[in-house]
Every structure is written in C-alpha cells, then in structure tokens.
Amino acid sequence: MSDTTQNGATATAARLSADDALTPAQLADKYGLTVSGARPGLVQYVRQLWGRRHFILAFSQAKLTAQYSQAKLGQLWQVVTPLLNAAVYYLIFGLILNSGRGMSKDTFILFLVTGVFVFTFTQTTVTAGVKSISGNLGLVRALHFPRASLPISLALQQLQQLLVSMIVLGLIAVSLGSYPALSWLLILPALTLQFAFNTGLALILARLGSKTPDLAQLMPFIMRTWMYASGVMFSIPVMLKDKPEWIANLLQWNPAAVYMDLIRFALIDGYGSENLPPHIWAFALGWAVLFGVLGFVYFWKAEERYGRG
What we know:
This protein is an all-alpha fold. 70% of the residues lie in helices and 0% in strands.
C-alpha cells in the first residue's frame, strides 16, 4: 500500500471515529442534512405557495369541472341548487311564517336570495375545507408540496362558483326593480374580505379534519345552526326587536351575518344603514384578518404531520 493511500485511509478512519462521538443532530448539521418533509419557515412557506400558484388554480378548476360532471345540467347546478334552497325558504319563512314583515314582497325575495347565495359561499368553503386533507391523502402522501395548497384551492373553487351565482343574483335584482348603482361596487371588497375569512376558517378546519375525520359528519349540523343564527331568512333587528339588544348585536356581529348585510346593503334599494350594525366594515375587516392570518399560521404549524399515521 502506498503512503498516500495509507494516509487517506488513516484520515478517513479518524474522521469516522470523530463522527461516532457526535449525536445524530450534530451529524446532520455537520453534513448539511435536513429532515425529510420538515416544516419550512413561515416566509419560505409563503414563497412555496406562491410558486405553486398555477397548481392551486388548476386544481380548483379541475375540482369545479368534476363536481357536476355526471349531471346532465352540469355547471348549472351551482346556480340551481341555491335557487331551489331560496325557493323552499321563501315558501316556509316568507309565505307561512311571514318573516319578511316590514319588507315588500320583491325586497324580501332579493333579501332572501342574497342571504342564501352569500351564506352558501361560506358553507361550501368550510365543508370542503374539513375534508381537503383527509379526502386527498393519496395526493398528500405521493407528492411533496405545501399542504395549504389544498384548502386554498378549494376555497378558490367556491369563489368561482359564487361569481357565477352573483351574475344570476344581479339579474334577479334587476328583474325585481333594483337596478345597478355605485353601491354595487361595494360587493367587490365585501366578497374579498369574505373570501379571506372563509379561507382562514377552511385552513383551521382542514387541520382539525385531518386528524378527526368525524368532524365532517358534524359540519352539516354546525352549519345549519350557524345559518339560522345569521339572519339568512329574516331580518335580525326586526325578529328580535322584543329581545335584549345584546342578543341582536351578538348575532349581527357574527361573520356570516356581517358579510350578508354588506352585500344586501350594496345590492338592495332601500336597505339603508339603519339595518347595519355600527362599524360593520371594521368588523368585516377584523374577521377577515383574524381568521385569515391565524388560520394560515395554525395550519402551517402542523405542516409536517399531514398524511402521516
């Protein structure tokens, strides 16, 4: 054996002997190794999501196309379904229970349809968010990508559905005598804030649903209760005028009611500011920021655990 070979073998043996004294963490640090699937930093995670923006959009569009692929009416069901719900609610709450007292027939119909469309946006986003991880385990386990892509893409899917519904809602408003006005422009910031709120809530429930699949079975009951408490089918101030004021305030300040009220105010002639709780835009912004930021951070905290176990 040459001196060079012998010296190299001696150096390698010495290095291996020194490595034996190091902990696994020290070895990993020494050789630049990282844990497979480890959670990246928050800023890096945001960058990764931005890098996957085309995948997020394509995934949402694919889900939207596939949703009604087996139905003859296809994408029309995304409008027909909330319209049928609104018709049922009008029959029960408008004609039988007269919950539209104080409004004309046309105003109440527009009030009701707006509430159903806007609340359905939150309802479907939350329902999809709960199953966004548990319902896509094959994708999660097979590919490495920011897992927040899934609930965000499903929230985008519901936003695309809502935009179609809003065109129909506009046509209904015109047919009932409520014509386009500058106030209609308020719909855009209201929907933007609602989308941020919905996405944050979907991220929270995506993490919870990934470990507790039974949560998806509870969501229809939770959402139904939330719907009845948000004034979808009736005016909260009118229906609760004989109750303590704090009850009406509590219901009007809940996020679903806030976003419905803003869009009703923008869309319905005669739905004045007296129907809105004070500082409603501040509440709308606060709910969007609170749930959008906290929901994102809460989901990111468990990034490395999705799809395991």
